[in-house]
Structures are given as structure tokens and as C-alpha cells.
Design brief:
Layout: E1 23-28, H1 31-39, E2 48-50, E3 61-62, H2 64-67, H3 77-83, E4 88-90, H4 94-111, E5 115-119, E6 122-126, H5 131-134, H6 137-152, E7 156-161, H7 164-173, E8 179-181, H8 187-191, H9 204-211, H10 218-223, H11 226-233, H12 235-245, E9 262-272, H13 275-296, E10 298-309, E11 314-325, H14 328-340, E12 348-360, H15 373-389, H16 397-400
Parallel strand pairs: 2-4, 7-8
Antiparallel strand pairs: 1-6, 1-7, 2-3, 5-6, 9-12, 10-11, 10-12
Helix pairs in contact: 4-6, 11-12, 13-14
Length: about 425
């Protein structure tokens, strides 16, 4: 979910200049919360938190009414309720979200075949070849917003620009339920006054590194000597952020969709009631999945877990990631947050972690600053050590504290 609460939004009127554009970024507004309102209209207008009810779970999404109290995704539900005590907590229903997402994506694909889904609730569209059928990019954006509202019953925000980077920024600024068009000739005018943290892919670490050198606005990036950016971010990232700050972004809309997944499961000899052991096992499996992702050159856009109880009832949970990753620690943190959303505390006979919505590591969205860089380097070192000494010889210390409790003789199943 986006981190904004809807304040300070900018929108374009219908008929605004869209010359030189052709790329749309369409983002559903507070998608999970919107789908829950669609399912139960009595929730409309209320502050909603999508997450487990036990207070130990994390927020998967929140309505804009809740965001105005400071509620954010990935925040513990208990903390969110302290910020907004009147919020209604609704457990997530990912099957329902996937079904509504399929409806939305079908609308996109009826407009243009050039659709690149980024996650369950957002996509890029290249509409340059659809002008004869539907009109200019601005008119197509209006059409999409109207159809999503009329045919699905939820709202979306659309950025229209000449590049993916600017379209993504524009849709964020126009949320919720807005449209912002940036004509090609005014790209620099649009970029210059924005804070560097508004750039797609610039995280807090990168923004802090730049701010320490007096680089706070995109215009500062554009006018700074290359060597200053190189010292702050490194040569590769410095060059990339400078290009984006000047409106250059050669990335195209990629329509290839990869449905493969990578996962590991563990079946226990004896049913397990120790939840610390189960959490440790989920982390271990996530590390193994991360290692396989790196070895195969994939990044995961989503994470799923499987929990099978002693009575053979099986529960599956999944979630899309804000940024695709191959880092086991990040996969493990997400798996644990999904696990905490399962209320049932019966003995468990099987746990599994799976990476979904895979994409080539070198393709898709490239973050300008990698918050997982240190962890990725550590896990790469572990990969090398395992290759040299054997998979069973190298593991994290945290897995060993309860590792002997894990029943032998049942290796993980792919």
C-alpha cells in the first residue's frame, strides 16, 4: 500500500495536455480495504485495518480513514490500534483480493495488450498503439478509471507520462481516486521541485545519504556534480539516479508473465506445538528459498506459506511484496507475518514457504537504493560456504538453538 494519507494530492482536469505521453501507471486505492468495503458496504467510511485480530499481526493494508491517524502497512496491529482505537480490524482474504485483481487486469488488457502487472493492485500500460481505438493517453486514463469504478466498484489512481518512472510518481501524487498527466515537455518542471524521496525506488537510506550532502530535491540531483552522487550512492546508482532526475528512463512495459514458483516444505515426525520452533523453521525454509532464488537468478514478487495441522487441515496464506527480492531474511520476515495472521494454535505437522510471481533478477523494477544490500552480501557469503562445505554444514546460529528439536528423516519437499 502507499504510505500517503491522501493529503496534498495533485490532479489534472479532463482534457489536460497529454502531448508526448503514452505510459500509464494505474494503482488501486487502498486495495485490500476497498475490496473489503465492496464485500461489506457497512464498512464504508470507517477506519479499517486489514490484518490479524490478535494484535501481534502486522497491517497488510489500511483505509485512508485509518491512514490519517498514522496507520501504515507492515506496522504491528497493536500499534495501529493505539494510533486509531476506533478502527475496525478485518482479517485479510487473499483469494477475494486475487479475484478482484483479475477483474481489474482484464479491463486493462481489453484496452491494450501491453500490460505489465507490478503487483496484485498496480500495473503499467503502454497505450501508444491504442490511440485509434480509444483516443489519447489522457482519454484512455479517464476511460480506465470510469470502467474500474463502474465494472468493479473500486477506485484507482492513474499517472500519465512519457516514461515509467514519471508515470509511477504521478499516480502516487494523485492518490486517492485521481489522475495526474505530465506532458513530455513539462517533465523536468514536474520533477525538479519534488523531494528525492519521492523518486520511485529511492528509499530512506538513499535519501539520507543524499541529504547529508545537501541534496534534497530532484533539482539538486540534476545539478550536483557526478562525483558527489558517486560518493553518496556509488557509481552505478549515482549514474542511474542522475538519469532519472533528468527525465531519462529507457525501461519499457514488459508483458512477459512468469508463473513459476520456488518453495520448500518440512513435514515433522511428531506434531509440533512449540511456536518458537515453527517460527524458526519458517525462517530456515525462507533462507533455503532465498538461496535457490539467487542460484537461479530470480526475484520473488510474492511470498506464500502453507501450514498443515495435526488433523490434516491445510491453511495457505500469501501476500505480494512491495519490492521483489531474493533475500532470505526478507522472505522470512514476510512468512512470519503471514503465520501470525493464522489464529489457530493446534499442533502442526507441516510448514512450507514458497516464493511466487518470479521475475528475472536483472529485469523489471530496479531499486535505486538496495536496503537489503548488506543482508544480500551476507547470504551470498553463506551460499559460497555451503557450496564449499555442504548445505548441512552451514546455517544461521538462530536455526541451531532449537534445530535439534526438528525431527530428522524428513527432508524438505520442493
Amino acid at each position: 500500500m502507499g504510505r500517503g494519507d491522501g493529503s496534498g494530492r495533485l490532479v489534472s482536469p479532463e482534457g489536460a495536455d497529454d502531448s508526448g505521453t503514452g505510459i500509464l501507471h494505474v494503482d488501486m486505492d487502498a486495495f485490500y480495504a476497498a475490496v473489503e468495503v465492496l464485500h461489506d458496504p457497512s464498512l464504508r467510511g470507517l477506519p479499517l485495518i486489514i490484518g490479524g485480530r490478535d494484535g501481534r499481526s502486522v497491517v497488510s493494508s489500511a483505509s485512508y480513514e485509518a491512514r490519517r491517524y498514522g496507520v501504515r502497512s507492515a506496522m504491528p496491529v497493536g500499534q495501529a490500534l493505539r494510533l486509531c482505537p476506533t478502527a475496525r480490524v478485518v482479517p485479510p482474504d487473499f483469494e477475494r483480493y486475487r479475484a478482484v485483481s483479475a477483474q481489474v487486469m482484464a479491463i486493462f488488457e481489453s484496452i491494450t495488450p501491453l500490460v505489465e502487472p507490478l503487483s496484485i493492485d498496480e500495473a503499467f500500460l503502454d497505450v501508444r498503439g491504442a490511440r485509434r481505438l480509444w483516443g489519447s493517453p489522457g482519454r484512455i486514463a479517464v476511460l480506465i478509471r470510469r470502467r474500474v469504478q463502474d465494472e468493479v466498484g473500486i477506485t484507482c489512481s492513474v499517472g500519465v507520462a512519457a516514461t515509467k518512472h514519471v508515470a509511477k510518481m504521478a499516480s502516487t501524487i494523485s492518490k486517492p481516486d485521481g489522475m495526474l498527466i505530465v506532458p513530455a515537455a513539462r517533465t523536468q518542471e514536474f520533477l525538479d521541485p519534488r523531494p528525492v524521496g519521492a523518486m520511485w525506488g529511492v528509499g530512506p537510506k538513499a535519501a539520507d545519504a543524499l541529504a547529508r550532502r545537501g541534496i534534497r530535491l530532484i533539482s539538486d540531483v540534476r545539478t550536483s556534480p557526478p562525483e558527489v552522487l558517486d560518493r553518496a550512492l556509488g557509481p552505478a546508482l549515482g549514474q542511474r539516479i542522475r538519469a532519472l532526475a533528468t527525465g531519462q528512463d529507457a525501461r519499457t512495459v514488459e508483458t512477459e508473465r512468469i508463473e513459476k514458483s520456488i518453495g520448500h516444505e518440512e513435514t515433522f515426525d511428531r506434531d509440533v506445538e512449540d511456536h518458537e520452533l515453527l517460527r524458526s523453521e519458517l525462517r530456515r525454509l525462507a533462507d533455503r528459498v532465498g538461496a535457490r532464488l539467487r542460484a537461479s537468478g530470480w526475484h520473488a514478487g510474492g511470498v506464500a506459506i502453507k501450514i498443515r495441522f495435526a488433523d490434516f487441515t491445510t491453511v495457505n496464506r500469501s501476500v505480494s511484496l512491495a519490492e521483489a527480492t531474493d533475500v532470505g531474511q526478507r522472505l522470512g520476515e514476510t512468512a512470519l507475518s503471514l503465520f501470525e495472521q493464522i489464529d489457530r494454535r493446534d499442533p502442526v505437522r507441516l510448514v512450507g514457504v514458497r516464493a511466487e510471481r518470479l521475475r528475472p533478477a536483472a529485469a523489471g523494477v530496479l531499486a535505486l537504493w538496495d536496503d537489503d544490500e548488506d543482508q544480500r552480501r551476507l547470504e551470498g557469503t553463506l551460499d559460497d560456504a555451503r557450496a564449499r562445505f555442504g548445505v548441512g554444514m552451514i546455517t544461521r546460529a538462530r536455526h541451531m538453538s532449537r534445530g535439534e528439536s526438528r525431527s530428522p528423516g524428513h527432508p524438505p519437499v520442493d
